[in-house]
């Protein structure tokens, strides 16, 4: 009888913890106690923030003062900015078409993430920004996108635009000379910048984050997180 009663008590405790109304009451009670004993408001705010669920599997960079936007020509010569993609989640990735591994792997992950999202996948927009405008001509970029998703876009900044964009996004790009003037390689930051449907930078996805994490983050942003 004692064991049975104990199990019932544990079940009640678990149910109580899962009840959102009881959880809100618990938070309010703790706040009240803190106020009574004179805990500073800043401490209360920090405690409240720590109680919030952390749903994103990617790095949350909401409110960042960099990567705030761009105005760059796409593979068709049309100048594009975040204002063109209202209502969509935008994933911006910097790379170059002759990149042998990181770039195609990231583009493939974005395609897979779009598929994992089901119907919502139509609202995930992949944007490939070339850091190699000398070799990545409009024709080359169009062919490159054809290997992944025709709805994705490529942006081709001129050298001056590229310099400004690299500074705004705080990314690293380094040119490594080859045996001939056009056989160079490039080192660059391998990450994606994820924007919510209002055009705000929200998430940072390191290379290899995975399609599932990208899809989950995009779905949360579309759902208003």
UniProtKB/TrEMBL annotation:
Positions of the Thioredoxin domain: 61-223
Lineage: Bacteria, Pseudomonadati, Pseudomonadota, Betaproteobacteria, Burkholderiales
Cysteine pairs bridged by disulfides in the record: 99-103
Keyword Lipid metabolism belongs to the record: no
Regions crossing the membrane: 27-47
PANTHER family tied to this protein: ELECTRON TRANSPORT PROTIN SCO1/SENC FAMILY MEMBER (PTHR12151), LINALOOL DEHYDRATASE_ISOMERASE DOMAIN-CONTAINING PROTEIN (PTHR12151:SF25)
Gene3D superfamilies, sorted: Glutaredoxin (3.40.30.10)
GO MF entry, a single one: metal ion binding
Residues that coordinate or bind Cu cation: 99, 103, 188
Organism superkingdom: Bacteria
Family, per entry: Belongs to the SCO1/2 family.
Keywords, alphabetical: Copper, Disulfide bond, Membrane, Metal-binding, Transmembrane, Transmembrane helix
Name recorded for this polypeptide: SCO family protein
A Pfam family recorded for this sequence: SCO1-SenC
């Amino acid at each position: 009888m004692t064991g049975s009663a104990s199990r019932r008590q544990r079940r009640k405790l678990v149910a109580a913890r899962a009840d959102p109304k009881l959880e809100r009451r618990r938070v309010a009670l703790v706040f009240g106690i803190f106020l009574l004993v004179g805990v500073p408001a800043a401490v209360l705010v920090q405690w409240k923030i720590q109680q919030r669920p952390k749903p994103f599997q990617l790095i949350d960079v909401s409110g960042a003062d960099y990567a705030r936007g761009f105005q760059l020509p796409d593979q068709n010569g049309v100048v594009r900015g975040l204002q063109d993609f209202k209502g969509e989640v935008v994933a911006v990735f910097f790379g170059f078409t002759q990149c042998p591994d990181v770039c195609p792997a990231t583009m493939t992950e974005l395609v897979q993430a779009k598929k994992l999202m089901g119907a919502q996948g139509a609202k995930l927009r992949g944007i490939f920004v070339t850091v190699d405008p000398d070799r990545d001509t409009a024709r080359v970029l169009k062919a490159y996108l054809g290997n992944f998703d025709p709805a994705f876009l490529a942006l081709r900044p001129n050298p001056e635009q590229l310099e400004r964009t690299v500074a705004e996004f705080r990314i690293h790009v380094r040119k490594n000379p080859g045996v001939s003037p056009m056989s160079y390689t490039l080192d660059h930051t391998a990450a994606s910048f994820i924007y919510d449907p209002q055009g705000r930078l929200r998430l940072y996805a390191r290379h290899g984050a995975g399609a599932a994490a990208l899809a989950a983050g995009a779905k949360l942003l579309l759902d208003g997180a």
